């Protein structure tokens, strides 16, 4: 009887451990530059506090970034970003929930650069949209870096840009997500 | 024995569910929500000034702000009739007091500035945030700044032999502000104005106290109405000027304004019962009586530049 108990316990723990193969990071980097002229960086912003999880078994990913962690060179822009455009008190986070296509967990055990893709849903400013983009995965030693460059349209997320500023901004805002997971 | 087995099983299944986290995003949202956050109140006022007075707002850290402001002569001069219209209510009279300033914030809580205020006068100031309105772990209902300004008169005055020291005056203010709601903010401003030198006169005094109240009501994301009222507490009656003739000042200063934030600049238009652009003069030697309709038009334009780069692509 004792042996059975022990065995059950071990099985349960092992199952739990396998199932718990999720990787997590709290310092994901999201950068965007809405300038029409991409060599200019005056409206650019980034957050270094995105949290993300990756479940290797099922290739599921999720990401959350609090809007107030986006910082700008000009403090006034940051205030406008939160108060006037993204309404950060009402919609405090932007999220992503999706799947990695062409990914398998063995990639994480071997150094290399893999071209995969992801699709899912982005929620920003209270609006949820389908999303699909190529992703570059770079595994090196104990880290796996997911790099994704994609574009979004502000008006699709009900973000109003005043007429005075509009001519200076690109129709589609390019974003770069650089999420690095520690592997262990 | 059976009890132990079932206990272990329950424990294991709990462990399983806890680590499985079927809903990855749900887990992240939960984690984010459970964090104790410190919410600092921002944007209590649009600009670093309410109208004439400093607001609790400070130029952002690493940002340089350039400000230009004009105070025009009286809106309406009694007895001048249609000439008032010809001068577009002071706007086109050809005389205006200009105020040009630069200020920079080295730290989140410290701002320093330099201004040219017209008539060979210069000002320099420091603004220090003592406490910040916030909720969360710590609850503080108001933001308090200490504002200290030194002003020097470099003009060819009536007595050029005057000691340089005599040409200095100072303003000390506590700015106590609270954002009551998204739209309404109020600020209390006790001030002390010190003149190193005042003309001889029994009622003349080096130290003048003043208490002021300012506020804003936000009309939209880009526009707001503002007001200011301040009252001088001493040193305005039966004074003597340099020529030993009697002067009386007006103790009240009343202003109403309109803020317009274009996204790049902040414009402030106002009607105020002073034609001076100097805080010290406005608060301690105001000659315009609002009760007689002595208001004047003025405007301020602000522009700030991010000097220190905080954004990195990677």
- What is the CATH architecture descriptor of chain A? Beta Barrel
Side-by-side strand order of the widest sheet of chain B: 2-3-4-5-7-8-9-10-11-14-15-16
What is the level-2 CATH architecture name of chain B? Answer: Beta Barrel
What percentage of the residues of chain B does DSSP assign to strands (E)? 35-45%
The CATH superfamily of chain B appears as monomeric porin ompg
If interface size is counted as residues with C-beta under 8 Å from the partner's C-beta, which chains form the largest one? Answer: A-B, 53 and 42 residues
Which structural class fits the helix and strand makeup of chain A?
alpha+beta
| Count of alpha and pi helical runs of chain A | 2
- What's the helix-strand series of chain B? HHEEHEEEEEEEEEEEEEHE
Low-confidence stretches of chain B: 17-21
Helix content of chain B: 10-25%
Give a verbal description of the structure.
The complex is a heterodimer of chains A (184) and B (314). By secondary structure, chain A is α+β, with helices and mostly antiparallel strands. Helices cover 16% and strands 47% of the residues of chain A. An 8-stranded antiparallel β-barrel of chain A has the order 1-2-3-5-6-7-8-9. The radius of gyration of chain A is 20 Å and the shape is elongated. The two termini of chain A are 35 Å apart. Chain B has 4 helices and 16 strands. In chain B, the strands form 3 sheets. Chain B has a 12-stranded antiparallel β-barrel. By secondary structure, chain B is mostly beta strands. Chain B is elongated. The longest helix of chain B is centred in the first third of the chain and has 19 residues, at 2-20. Chain B has one domain: monomeric porin ompg (Porin), CATH 2.40.160. Classes of the chains: A alpha+beta (184), B mainly beta (314).
